[in-house]
UniProtKB/TrEMBL annotation, chain A:
Domain of life: Bacteria
Name of the protein in question: Formate dehydrogenase subunit delta
Pfam families: FdsD
From TrEMBL, chain B:
Keyword Nucleotide-binding part of the UniProt annotation: no
Organism: Marinobacter salexigens
Domain 4Fe-4S ferredoxin-type: 174-205, 218-246
Domain spans labelled 4Fe-4S His(Cys)3-ligated-type: 112-151
Residue ranges constituting the 4Fe-4S Mo/W bis-MGD-type domain according to the UniProt record: 253-309
PROSITE patterns in alphabetical order: 2FE2S_FER_2, 4FE4S_FER_1, 4FE4S_FER_2, 4FE4S_HC3, 4FE4S_MOW_BIS_MGD
Protein name: Formate dehydrogenase subunit alpha
This protein's UniProt keywords: 4Fe-4S, Iron, Iron-sulfur, Metal-binding, Oxidoreductase, Repeat
Family named by the database record: In the C-terminal section; belongs to the prokaryotic molybdopterin-containing oxidoreductase family.
Organism domain of life: Bacteria
Domain named 2Fe-2S ferredoxin-type: residues: 34-112
Matches recorded under InterPro entries: 2Fe-2S_ferredoxin-type, 4Fe4S_Fe-S-bd, 4Fe4S_Fe_S_CS, Formate_Dh-H_N, Formate_DH_asu, MoPterin_dinucl-bd_dom, Mopterin_OxRdtase, Mopterin_OxRdtase_4Fe-4S_dom
Length: 90, 973
């Protein structure tokens, strides 16, 4: 069962892909879409769609899965930065 | 206030900066570059050809008496007081209508002229009440001043003859009165209504002695076409047209120049005061955005600042079902900090966020996003631009390299064709709307792309515009069709494209746009607009010397809002209408500081100056000044915050000056999100709809109570100057600073100028901005840096920030929000002139006399199908909600389209708007909602709940309001 929040993210992702289909083949389109998510989506939103792709891949279109795969690859290669002040506070 | 002699003005300065905005030079400036030398009373002066003798004399420091002349109106020559003698010419020509000529020798004072002027004044005064001591204009009356200047000592005609002294006063307008007994029929009000405002509501009725000023068909002002802009009141040289606030309180004794806090035009005003009481707002002639003009909001609707509903003390409560408790600032801030820290400790660093205000100053907005990024330790900051112009930021940055409009407002005066898309300037940006109308009267052509027939199409003497009444949601289809015509009919500016644009991107776009599927004929069925009209519009735009595009929320608030913005930029690039006056791409920003709030880093992915958070070099610079690490991932946008709140992962919000509960779409979803929060801190001037869900209420300050800057739609940074003390003791920037300090992240600024200095040190487009320069120049249009030390009126003149302009492919995709059998009509929303946004300010003024409630406009044929008459109650149902509004039949829209406004919270306009949003930015699709409409007899369930909830919340506030009143009274003692 996918919650409403993730459903909204999937809808947003589908919209992003649909509006970038003109960039060419699937590889190029998903590059652009993954870059868009990378630039504009919050960390928690990225994590949620990546989890959804892992746990419920059937809920996503092929292009969405491809996009998230690229996003997940980029996320893996990057370490999340600690935030000393906040982390020290609590 | 009239000045007859200003010793500081001794000679003409070629630049406008040499002029005194408080002085009336009699006739408008000439823009000729040819100079002419004359002498006035022996004084030599050189002025541009076309300058009147009256103005040349004033520039030489010689002030000729006048009554019908004013430098914001064309010369009229009716009062004859400004008559002069000119060597070699016969008679006594009026200096206002006489242009200078090389070598002209003018004499302004002779015995004959003095006698003539006295005789004229004698006639005027013979039909004018002699109640100067009790007249509201006493001390500020041009008629009185001129009588003194010409030496009037007697009125030989007596006062017993036929006269107008018993003429009836028209008090119908809530803000000014019209007392025709004091009128001298100089026509300044009539000409101001025509030339400055462009409404043509006033006229001179009758002839000779019977001549009198009349509104419309001799109607009361309130029932006439008058839009209450105040231009006539300002123009009146007597007290015939007079602000009621002056009648009540007397003439103001000092003034402060500041910037209006309503729409994105950013008009400059003189706040005229008596002590700490604001008497009136008078548009400031030195304001580069408005040049002395105003609208009914900025001019008159300032009473909200002292309204009884103002929150004057901080308040807290544990639950939204508890009564508010008035506490000290320290207690409120400590309570807030404890809650925020506790929530972060329990739910994580990213569980809280903040919303900056597009109504607050740049400095305040900067501090809120800094608080979020530095003290909260995440990038969960967003602003109300999310729901209006976020697609402008995305679309213009992608194509032109900068998230801002390209022109000055004045640029419209050089446009040959004006294209208005999804904007309603005469209502939403009225002062610019008047300037646009002036250009249309001069012969510029007009194209309007809008489902509604907006008022600018009915510009008196403006020629016939081309209206493309497209179906809501088909903007991209029509902009593609326009571009298709330009490309396939060879109307492109190839020189511009070759020299200024990226060739690869252009070739891809050109191939796409030339495809037959983008032709007007192919798109006709989609847009509902005839192909021939689209072709005509494309030819008119591309064939113009200068083509200017102005657009508004009718472009951005769509599922393809960002695509449409790029489509608009494509049009301008293809026709070479970038980088020159008279052209450009001009987003008309809704609120006073939408541009500024975006510039200041309110968006979750960008630091100030549109610098992305994932750029390590950018973060490094900010970190070195702020002293803490900055998260390298974007934060949540407003709609994502709501979703996360409902999901239970987002638990606290700090909202400054933004009423998300009323302004954001799908109200019930927003309400559910707000109810899910453990801590909602609202900083506002009233208990707005959002504050009813809050746990902390921090009193905000109005624009009158603070120092800072606003940035208007033309990137103009204008000073906001404090004219009265903040009602709760702190300006908004001080509150944010105190909250940050309570959270343990130190902020210590003594004045907003210090905040601006920090902004300038971190923002490449602001490096040359500081308060001293703002004082010196009056205002600055960014970018202002080493390359452009005086600012940049027109952008992209030489190159784009991204080097070459980038055409973008704009594939049309229909929105998912489509009409169906169940929801056969398309609802679109907008604004009207008298109210502003959620109405929090204007509903607390007499502006509500013009608009007491939101109504649903529908076409008579749709009404007939449903048996609906004007004034019936209508239930409006969409896929997400249901509300009830009164019907107003209108032919402004085509059948199938209905329209409403969202100025009153109880209307529930956003109960029916959906979560659909722009693909790139999540800007909500307010402009397209499929609905059904039917007659009903009672309010909707939501409206009944709204009334109950409102009553409950007002009851929970009431004891605290009483307590704050007594505490406040004690403090004042």
């Amino acid at each position: 069962m996918i919650d409403q929040q993730v459903n909204n993210l999937i809808k947003m992702l589908d919209q992003i892909i649909a509006n970038n289909r003109h960039h060419g083949d699937d590889d190029k389109v998903t590059d652009v879409a993954a870059d868009h998510l990378h630039k504009f989506w919050a960390r928690s939103m990225k994590q949620q769609v990546i989890e959804c792709a892992n746990e419920n891949p059937e809920a996503l279109s092929g292009l969405s899965r491809m996009t998230i795969g690229k996003l997940a690859g980029a996320a893996d290669s990057k370490e999340s930065l600690p935030h000393p002040q906040c982390d020290e506070d609590r | 206030m009239l000045h007859y002699y200003d010793p500081s003005i001794q000679s003409y300065e070629p630049s406008k900066s040499g002029l005194n905005p408080d002085f009336d030079y009699g006739t408008p400036a000439s823009v000729s570059e040819t100079l002419v030398s004359i002498s006035v009373d022996g004084r030599a002066i050189t002025v541009p050809e076309g300058t009147s003798v009256l103005r040349a004399s004033a520039l030489a420091g010689i002030n000729i008496p006048k009554l019908c002349a004013s430098d914001n109106l064309e010369a009229f020559g009716s009062c004859r007081l400004c008559a002069v003698e000119i060597e070699g010419r016969r008679g006594y020509p009026a200096s206002c209508t006489t242009p200078v000529a090389e070598g002209m020798e003018v004499t302004t004072q002779t015995g004959k002229l003095a006698k003539m002027r006295r005789n004229i004044m004698e006639l005027y005064i013979s039909d004018h009440p002699l109640d100067c001591l009790t007249c509201p204009a006493n001390g500020n009356c041009e008629l009185q001043d001129v009588a003194g200047a010409v030496g009037l000592r007697e009125v030989r005609y007596g006062f017993e003859g036929e006269n107008h002294l018993d003429a009836e006063i028209d008090d119908s307008n809530p803000y000014f009165s019209f007392d025709p007994s004091k009128c001298i029929v100089c026509s300044r009000c009539v000409r101001a209504c025509e030339e400055v405002q462009g409404t043509f509501a006033l006229t001179i009725e009758g002839r000779g002695f019977d001549s009198k000023v009349a509104a419309s068909q001799n109607d009361p002002f309130m029932d006439s076409e008058c839009v209450s802009c105040g231009a006539c009141v300002q123009a009146c040289p007597t007290s015939t047209l007079m602000e009621k606030s002056v009648i009540d309180a007397g003439q103001p004794e000092h003034s402060v120049v500041t910037t209006c806090a309503y729409c994105g035009v950013g008009c400059s005003f003189k706040a005229e005061m008596k002590g700490d009481q604001l008497i009136r707002m008078v548009p400031y002639k030195g304001g580069e955005a408005n040049h002395g003009h105003s609208c009914v909001k900025g001019r008159f609707a300032f009473g909200y600042a002292t309204h009884d509903d103002r929150i004057k003390e901080p308040m807290i409560r544990d639950s939204i079902n508890d009564p508010w408790k008035v506490v000290s600032w320290d207690e409120a801030l400590a309570f807030s900090a404890k809650k925020l820290k506790g929530i972060q400790a329990k739910y994580g660093r990213e569980s809280i966020g903040g919303i900056t205000s597009s109504r607050c100053t740049n400095e305040e907005t900067y501090l809120v996003q800094k608080l979020v990024r530095a003290a909260f330790g995440n990038n969960n900051t967003d602003t109300c631009a999310r729901v209006c112009h976020s697609p402008t930021g995305y679309g213009l940055k992608t194509t032109l390299g900068e998230s801002a409009g390209t022109q000055t407002f004045d640029s419209v005066m050089k446009a040959d064709t004006i294209m208005v898309i999804g904007a309603n300037p005469t209502d939403a940006h009225p002062v610019f709307g008047s300037l646009m109308r002036k250009r249309l009267r001069q012969g510029a052509k007009l194209i309007v792309i809008d489902p509604r027939r907006i008022d600018v199409l009915n510009t008196p003497h403006g020629g016939e515009g081309i209206h493309l009444p497209l179906r809501p949601g088909t903007n991209v289809a029509i902009v593609n069709a326009l571009a298709h015509v330009i490309v396939t009919e060879g109307l492109e500016d190839q020189n511009f494209i070759n020299s200024r644009c990226d060739t690869g991107a252009y070739n891809i776009w050109r191939t796409f746009i030339a495809e037959e599927r983008n032709s007007p004929e192919a798109m006709e069925e989609v847009t509902g607009v005839s192909a021939s009209k689209v072709r005509e519009a494309a030819r008119v735009y591309a064939g113009a010397g200068n083509g200017a595009i102005y657009y508004g929320l009718g472009v951005t608030e769509h599922s393809q809002g960002s695509t449409m913005v790029m489509g608009i930029a494509n049009l301008a690039l293809a026709t070479g209408n970038i980088g020159k006056e008279g052209g450009g791409v001009n987003p008309l920003r809704g609120q006073n500081n939408v541009q500024g709030s975006c510039d200041m880093g309110s968006f979750p992915h960008e630091l100030p100056g549109y610098q992305h958070v994932n750029d390590p070099k950018v973060r490094e610079r900010f970190q070195s000044v702020w002293g803490v690490p900055i998260d390298d991932e974007p934060g949540l946008r407003i709609p994502n915050m709501f979703d996360a709140a409902i999901a239970g992962t987002f638990k606290a919000m700090y909202v400054q000056g933004e009423d998300i509960a009323q302004s954001d779409p799908n109200t019930q979803h927003v309400e559910a999100a707000l109810k899910s929060l453990d801590c909602l801190i609202v900083q506002d001037i009233f208990l707005n709809e959002t504050a009813k869900y809050a746990h902390v209420l921090l009193p905000g300050s109005t624009f009158l109570e603070k120092n800072g800057t606003f940035t208007n739609a033309e990137r103009r940074i204008n000073r906001v100057r404090k004219v009265m003390e903040p009602i709760a003791g702190m300006e908004d920037w001080q509150v944010t600073m105190a909250l940050s300090n309570a959270l343990g992240y130190p902020m210590n600024y003594n004045h907003p100028s210090e905040i601006m200095d920090e902004i300038a040190s971190l923002t490449p487009t602001f490096t040359g901005v500081d308060y001293d320069k703002l004082e010196q120049l009056g205002s600055i249009q960014w970018p202002c840096n080493d390359d452009n030390p005086q600012g940049t009126p027109t952008m992209h003149e030489v190159e784009f920030p991204i080097g070459k302009g980038r055409f973008a492919v704009t594939e049309y995709l229909a929105t998912e929000e489509r009409a169906s059998r169940r929801f056969p009509l398309l609802l679109t929303t907008g604004r009207i002139l008298s109210q502003y946004n959620v109405g929090a300010q204007t509903r607390r003024t007499n502006n509500s006399d013009w608009h007491e409630e939101d109504v649903l406009e529908l076409h008579p044929s749709d009404a007939e199908l449903r048996g609906v008459s004007d004034g019936d109650w209508l239930g409006i149902s969409s896929r997400v909600g249901h509300t009830v509004l009164r019907a107003k039949l209108s032919t402004r829209m085509l059948p199938g389209v209905v329209y409403t406004t969202f100025h009153h919270p109880g209307s529930g306009a956003n109960v029916v708007t959906t979560d659909n949003s722009d693909w790139a930015t999540n800007c909500p699709e307010y402009k397209v909602t499929a609905v059904q409409v039917e007659k009903v007899s009672q309010p909707s369930d939501w409206q009944r709940d709204f009334v109950d909830f409102d009553k409950r919340q007002q009851a929970l506030l009431k004891p605290a309001m009483g307590q704050q009143e007594s505490r406040h009274a004690n403090t004042l003692k």
